[in-house]
Amino acid sequence: MRRLDQVLSSLGYCSRREALLFVKNARVKHNGLVLTKADQKVDPHAVTVDDEPLEAPDGLLAMLHKPAGYVCTHDGNEGPTIYELLPDQWLRRNPAVTSVGRLDRDTSGLLLITDIGPLVHRYTSPKAEIEKVYVAELDRDLEPSLVETFAKGDLMLRGEEKPCLPAKLELLSPRSARLTITEGRYHQVRRMFASQGWHVEKLHRQRFGDHTMDDLVEGAWKILPMP
Ligand code: URA
Fold first, then answer.
1. Ligand 1, from 65, 100, 103: best to mutate by most atoms within 8 Å of Cβ?
2. Strand 221-223 to strand 61-66: parallel, antiparallel, or no bridges (unpaired)?
3. Ligand 1 centre and the CA of 191: distance in Å?
4. Which 8-state DSSP code applies to residue 164?
5. What is the distance in A from the centroid of ligand 1 to the CA of 188?
6. Domain co-membership, 11 together with 116
7. Whose CA is nearest to atom 3 of ligand 1?
């Protein structure tokens, strides 16, 4: 059981002071009964605001279809950020929501968003070797030998000491390919192609672990069940 005003403020509904107003205006119920005190101890699962259950009371996990042109940082000086695409209420949550890893500004596709720290760790830990699937468009025709080059597990990226883990490349058309990697190094896909003399002109992430975007349109998000 937790104090109502703390619950509402940590889930981004209002400040703790504003919780008094929520209560005064009879907007909050617990097990269907109107609450009269903002410091009352409640089970967050039994609370409603305006007759709606609280949003993601145990932590938020969501998927965003990131459009190209948005950066994965809270710093607004670098242009539009992915956080501008999310509901204001999420941005007021405490702990704060963050992306699970990052996509480059020019990369589009599936990005997980959460306020659950251990989940970020679980999904981004190198040990987890979670599959990330990208579709890349290249500046010139691909060569079939790249499939073996990426699969071997000895590809060195400039400035790094360890080779990339084996990656699966599937050629889709003369200048496009699907690449599955299990690491998340800085600009990894672009740098893997660059190491072999190709320039990635467009990059899109289709899958992250078990998550695919299905019909989510660019810029849209959806809340996911807890894993
Ligand atoms: N690899 C890249 O080069 N960029 C991304 O955004 C993701 C993976």
1. 103
2. antiparallel
3. 8
4. P
5. 5
6. no
7. 187
DSSP notation for 77-102 = GGSSBGGGGS-HHHHT-SSPPEESS-
| Cα of 23 from ligand 1 centre, angstroms | 46
Give the residues across from 48 on adjacent strands: 29, 53
| Maximum distance among all Cα pairs of the chain, rounded to whole angstroms | 70
Distances (CA, A) of 81 to 60, 165, 189, 213, 226: 19, 31, 21, 20, 25
- Candidates 5, 104, 115, 139; catalytic one: 104
Is residue 112 domain-shared with residue 140, that is, in the same domain?
A: no
Prediction pTM value: 0.95
- Is 65 found in the same domain as 117? yes
Domain count, the chain: 3
- The answer to whether residues 117 and 136 belong to one domain is no
Most ligand 1 atoms within 8 A of CB, residue of 135, 190, 208 to mutate: 190
CATH number, residue 47: 3.10.290.10
pLDDT tens digits, the chain, 227 residues: what are they?
999 999 999 999 999 999 999 999 999 999 999 999 999 999 999 999 999 999 999 999 999 999 999 999 988 898 999 999 999 999 999 999 999 999 999 999 999 999 999 999 999 998 999 999 999 999 999 999 999 999 999 999 999 999 999 999 999 999 999 999 999 999 999 999 999 999 999 999 999 999 999 899 999 999 999 87
- Is residue 156 domain-shared with residue 219, that is, in the same domain? no
